[in-house]
């Protein structure tokens, strides 16, 4: 059994270390509700009350409360890192340009022009002058 | 090669012995010659003393006729074989006629020569006119040299001249000269004239005069003029067709390739460019490829310059994907392209510039930045992400604002939660299992064990199973079920696939061990975890475990926390905790070396005053030498620093005495009064004083000096009770100390340390607790008896010694007898005063009313000794 000085107020309330006072109050309310019909409820309620008081009164800055064990030490380890509906990946932008017909026609015309120039160059390279 | 047309008139002619069938001019080609005519050779000069250059005018058989100088009569005849090497100035490869013309125009070297120019010109003309071939050759050579007078005077026909000039221009690539020469050709004949333009085709397309000449040729029906015009001026398909025909006569294989190109362009689906430097053709080929379904990611650098609409087509069809390489397109602004393909690579500013508000909305949602979300132009995306933030805050999903697929998923979550709560299910639907972002809604069920993965799920969705297990481990800790938590933790360790979860499992399992009191196991697990990320929390947890299991070892860990954290608040908290843990460790350990550095660093940082005081006190106590080396503090810290530097000096500096320490306390007290930090130090000092004074009298002279200083300068620092105890104790110690050297307390000190506090006590006695008052009275009694006793003994001994000396002197110093007797009376008077001093002490002692056996035993010797001394004094006085 844990000694008094080893008790963890966040653990007693079942909330992660450093949770807000509001979270602590909600957890207390939830846990206390279920205690009425249980045996040993007085002791349990006292511990819950102690835990709530600690978080509300004694712990100004959880980060500097070095006597309280961090559960969890890495909150992110309990949150899956993958993308999904609630953590969507980067969104690719939808198209904003119009239909490409005119641009394609211009490209084809330019390509044809280059082809004609290329053919001319090739003829110029391969031709032979007649005898003088 | 068979000459098929006449150069003189341009008509097609087979030629023959009588020349062209149309103009009769011989169709001989330009001839070559191996003759030495026209070459210059060195010849001996007059008297054979010099050499001259002689040019060969003619060769008859084996003899060559040389012209040497106009002064020589005629020419000289020499055997051809004796000519030797010709002079370099006249190129051998030229025709004889041109050689002579070169000879006329070229300067010579050292060999003296002066030919008759007219002789050479006449001979050159003769040579050039010897045949059509010679004529043509000479003309061609004149073109090379640019001898327009030779060109103009050549007997060749004007049309042949034009032809030959055009041919030369085509050879050297001079389109202007070519065009000018072609324009001098007659409108018919010279059917090969078109071929002269081909080498300059690429520039001819922009040469208006050349094109005009081509048009005239076409009009006159010259062969291939039409085709050439089509090639340079025709519409692309006509140009390509015409060009392909021409090329087929030059390289049939290439014409086939170009035929394919023509077909591709006709189909508006060009493929790979077969001509170099054709970026648009190349890009069009890539587009064709993409349109046909090929992936064009690797070709992005070849199409990145295209209009965005074409690139969008490729993106929409999947030909261009996020895998496309942007590496080599660094000169273009491809923000839009990145926004379409790899939005994660553009920053917020670029996304805004590109108008990619959907992505911005997503980013602001991920950052939970409602203000930024609200600043975006309203849109379905913005509304969706705002609604999603609401869901995170616990608001029920708003179907009007959320994306339909998200609404559907959240409804599924809701029904799955209901099923679990009503024990109708212990697993989740596949859509939820496949989306890890939805698992968080079921964390509490996993923690309580209501949601537990079965064997199949562990195989099909291992990530979910591991997440569930870790949640359950956490849940067991919330339930304080330490045993089951340890069992589950041990099962998880080594099986979790992600390092982050493995480290957390170590941490959680360690906590369970602490719950069972197994600090060693907890420490072992945490030591494995601290080298991963989130070291700070893990270090703190390890420090907690060590504090419970091995406090002495915790110091090193706190030192790590102090050194590694950048948070000042955490450093202060860690030092406070470190001091607390160390202080609780038994028995009385030395201050940890590992904490010295961090402590001194903190002392030079910005601290709350109470922390500064606490840490300074620690340093002054355990590392006084180091503390003294720190810069002197200023401002609010100054009084604290002054006091604790005094304490440190008291430890380190042998010359810094009790009185000096007391003086510093008084000085600081006078500056700041009694703040809590001062009281903490004062309390500690008082405790050490209390421990010190209750020792054999005479052994705490230093402490007594301390007390004396306080009583003298600031008696109210002591409480009343402390004054009543410490002052007389100090007096007794000092009296005993002085007595060793034969001196006594001065009356002022007796007044300060005894009489004043005694009078104060006697006035307050009735208000004090009886037992306490009796104890104080007894303390006064004891110490005053002692001090008075030392006083009496010391003074009596001193007086007796002086008096006895005077008595001895009286026996022989008769001359000064009166003076000696007077001195003896003075001694006796002095003794009476000392006796009165002791009377005063006795008076206080009696008034203290210490009516105990011990008290009476103390006082009796004093009063007896006093009485005896007084009697002795009276007796001695009466004998004088």
Give a brief outline of the structure.
The complex is a heterodimer of chains A (132) and B (880). Chain A contains 4 helices and no strands.
Cα-based radius of gyration of chain A, to the nearest Å:
37 Å
- Biggest chain contact: A-B, 72 and 128 residues
Mean pLDDT of chain A: 89
Structural class of chain B: mainly alpha
Q: Radius of gyration of chain B from the CA trace?
A: 63 Å
Distance between the termini of chain A: 116 Å
Describe the structure.
The complex is a heterodimer of chains A (132) and B (880). Chain A has helices at residues 9-13, 21-33, 41-58, 101-126. Chain A has 132 residues and is mostly helical. In chain A, helix 2 runs antiparallel to helix 3 (41-58). The model of chain A has no long low-confidence stretch (mean pLDDT 89). Chain B is mainly α and 880 residues long. Helix content of chain B is 64%, strand content 3%. Chain B contains 43 helices and four strands. Chains A and B meet through helix 4 of A and helix 5, helix 11, helix 12, helix 13 and helix 15 of B.
């Amino acid at each position: 059994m844990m000694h008094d000085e080893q008790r963890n107020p966040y653990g007693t309330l079942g909330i992660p270390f450093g949770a807000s006072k509001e979270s602590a109050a909600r957890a207390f309310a939830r846990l206390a509700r279920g205690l009425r019909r249980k045996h040993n409820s007085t002791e349990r309620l006292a511990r819950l009350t102690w835990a709530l008081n600690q978080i509300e009164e004694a712990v100004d800055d959880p980060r500097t409360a070095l006597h309280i064990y961090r559960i969890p030490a890495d909150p992110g380890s309990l949150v899956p890192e993958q993308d999904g509906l609630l953590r969507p990946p980067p969104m690719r932008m939808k198209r904003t340009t119009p239909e490409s017909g005119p641009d394609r026609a211009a490209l084809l015309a330019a390509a044809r022009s280059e082809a004609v120039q290329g053919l001319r160059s090739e003829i110029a390279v391969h031709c032979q002058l007649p005898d003088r | 090669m068979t000459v098929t047309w006449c150069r003189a008139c341009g008509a097609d002619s087979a030629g023959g012995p009588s020349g062209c069938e149309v103009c009769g001019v011989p169709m001989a080609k330009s001839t070559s010659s191996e003759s030495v005519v026209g070459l210059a050779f060195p010849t001996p000069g007059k008297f054979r003393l010099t050499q001259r250059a002689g040019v060969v005018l003619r060769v008859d058989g084996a003899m060559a006729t040389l012209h040497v100088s106009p002064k020589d009569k005629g020419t000289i005849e020499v055997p051809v074989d004796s000519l030797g090497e010709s002079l370099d100035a006249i190129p051998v490869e030229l025709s004889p006629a041109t050689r002579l013309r070169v000879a006329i125009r070229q300067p010579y070297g050292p060999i003296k020569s002066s030919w008759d120019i007219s002789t050479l010109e006449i001979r050159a003309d003769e040579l050039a006119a010897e045949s059509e071939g010679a004529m043509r050759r000479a003309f061609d050579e004149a073109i090379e040299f640019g001898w327009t007078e030779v060109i103009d005077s050549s007997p060749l026909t004007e049309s042949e001249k034009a032809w030959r000039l055009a041919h030369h221009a085509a050879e050297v690539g001079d389109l202007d000269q070519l065009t000018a020469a072609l324009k001098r050709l007659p409108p018919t004949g010279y059917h090969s004239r078109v071929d002269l333009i081909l080498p300059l085709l690429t520039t001819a397309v922009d040469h208006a005069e050349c094109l005009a000449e081509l048009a005239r040729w076409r009009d006159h029906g010259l062969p291939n003029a039409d085709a050439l015009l089509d090639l340079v001026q025709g519409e692309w398909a006509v140009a390509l067709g015409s060009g392909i025909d021409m090329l087929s006569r030059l390289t049939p294989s290439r014409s086939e390739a170009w035929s394919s190109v023509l077909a591709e362009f006709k189909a508006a689906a060009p493929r790979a460019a077969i001509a170099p430097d054709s970026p648009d053709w190349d890009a069009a080929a890539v587009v064709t490829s993409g349109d046909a379904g090929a992936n064009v990611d690797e070709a992005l650098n070849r199409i990145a310059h295209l209009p965005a609409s074409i690139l969008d087509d490729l993106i929409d069809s999947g030909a261009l994907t996020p895998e496309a390489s942007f590496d080599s397109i660094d000169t273009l602004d491809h923000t839009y392209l990145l926004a379409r393909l790899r939005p994660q690579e553009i920053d917020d500013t670029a996304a805004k510039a590109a108008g990619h508000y959907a992505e911005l909305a997503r980013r602001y949602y991920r950052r939970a930045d409602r203000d930024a979300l609200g600043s975006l132009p309203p849109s379905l995306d913005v509304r969706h992400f705002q609604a999603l933030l609401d869901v995170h805050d616990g608001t029920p999903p708003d179907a009007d604002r959320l994306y339909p697929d998200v609404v559907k998923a959240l409804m599924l979550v809701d029904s799955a939660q209901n099923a679990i709560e009503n024990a109708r299910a212990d697993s989740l639907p596949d859509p939820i299992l496949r989306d890890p972002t939805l698992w968080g809604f079921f964390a509490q069920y996993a923690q309580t064990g209501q949601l537990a993965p079965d064997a199949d799920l562990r195989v099909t969705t291992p990530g979910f199973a591991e997440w569930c297990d870790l949640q359950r481990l956490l849940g067991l800790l919330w339930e304080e079920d330490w045993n089951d938590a340890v069992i589950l933790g041990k099962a998880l360790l080594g099986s979790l696939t992600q390092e982050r979860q493995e480290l957390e499992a170590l941490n959680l399992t360690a906590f369970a061990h602490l719950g069972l009191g197994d600090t060693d196991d907890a420490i072992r697990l945490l030591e494995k975890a601290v080298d991963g990320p989130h070291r700070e929390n893990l270090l703190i947890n390890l420090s907690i475990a060590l504090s419970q299991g091995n406090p002495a070892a915790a110091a090193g860990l706190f030192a790590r926390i102090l050194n590694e954290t950048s948070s000042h608040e955490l450093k202060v908290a860690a030092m406070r905790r470190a001091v607390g843990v160390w202080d609780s460790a038994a028995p009385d350990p030395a201050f940890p070396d590992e904490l010295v550095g961090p402590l001194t660093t903190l002392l030079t940082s910005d601290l709350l005053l109470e922390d500064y005081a606490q840490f300074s006190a620690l340093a002054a106590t355990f590392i006084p030498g180091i503390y003294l080396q720190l810069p002197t503090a200023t401002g609010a810290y100054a009084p604290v620093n002054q006091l604790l530097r005094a304490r440190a000096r008291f430890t380190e500096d042998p010359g810094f005495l009790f009185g000096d320490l007391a003086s510093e306390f008084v000085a600081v007290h006078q500056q700041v009064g009694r703040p809590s930090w001062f009281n903490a130090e004062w309390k500690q000092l008082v405790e050490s004083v209390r421990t010190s004074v209750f020792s054999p009298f005479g052994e705490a002279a230093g402490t007594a000096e301390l007390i004396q200083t306080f009583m003298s300068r600031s008696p109210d620092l002591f409480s009343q009770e402390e004054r009543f105890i410490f002052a007389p104790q100090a007096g007794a110690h000092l009296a005993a100390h002085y007595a060793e050297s034969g001196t006594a307390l001065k009356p002022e000190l007796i007044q300060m340390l005894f009489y004043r506090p005694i009078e104060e006590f006697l006035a307050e006695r009735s208000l004090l607790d009886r037992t306490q008052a009796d104890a104080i009275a007894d303390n006064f009694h004891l110490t005053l008896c002692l001090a008075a006793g030392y006083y009496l003994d010391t003074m009596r001994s001193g007086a007796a010694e002086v008096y006895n000396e005077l008595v001895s002197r009286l026996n022989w110093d008769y001359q000064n007898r009166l003076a000696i007797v007077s001195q003896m009376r003075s001694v006796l008077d002095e003794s009476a005063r000392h006796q009165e001093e002791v009377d005063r002490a006795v008076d206080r002692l009696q008034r203290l009313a210490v009516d105990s056996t011990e008290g009476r035993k103390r006082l009796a010797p004093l009063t007896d000794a006093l009485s005896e001394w007084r009697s002795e004094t009276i007796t001695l006085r009466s004998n004088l």
